[in-house]
Amino acid sequence: MIKLVKPVEVHGWGNDAKPETPTVTGEWILVDWLTKEDNCIKHKGEDNGGHAKKHCCLIMASKCTQLTLCERTHKTVLTKVSAMEDQWRNAHDWVNNTGVGVLRDDGKDVFDNLVTGRCSFCCDLEPIMIDEPEQIQLQLVKTQMIQMTKMMLSMMKMRVRILVPFPKPSLNRQRKRRLMLKVRRR
What we know:
Elements: H1 26-35, H2 39-44, H3 53-67, H4 74-96, H5 98-106, H6 108-118, H7 122-129, H8 133-163, H9 171-185
Helix pairs in contact: 1-3, 1-7, 3-4, 4-7, 5-6
């Protein structure tokens, strides 16, 4: 039997912090990176400036490797981010269904503990996760409806201009114009 000189320690995403920075875990780094600026949009592949999802995962992996005890790869980061998204969706669904009754019957403290038990970073990810495809689709439909309405209104205005002739000027206006012309000619 061979004994290793220094056994390898296995660290999860939530307990891989260095002793000098005990709150900086791999999970915290991912949440922090995703919630800053438009990094989440880049990671999802929308308007990413030519960078692939792999590039974003490499950036997060290098941050995790520098700031924690574990060496992370782009594949492990991609897997973890996907798992975090699933965790958030499950917690969000629970909040909107079963959680309503728990909040009403058991109070806010119990409710908050149950939500953080399901997804410890639920509140942190909400601003970026709430814009999921169905929300984006809804916004797109609203935008298209507004554009169509504006277009229809402009077409209606054009049609009104074509169908309704300009009103004939009153006799007083005609006289005033003639007088103005006479004055100008002199």
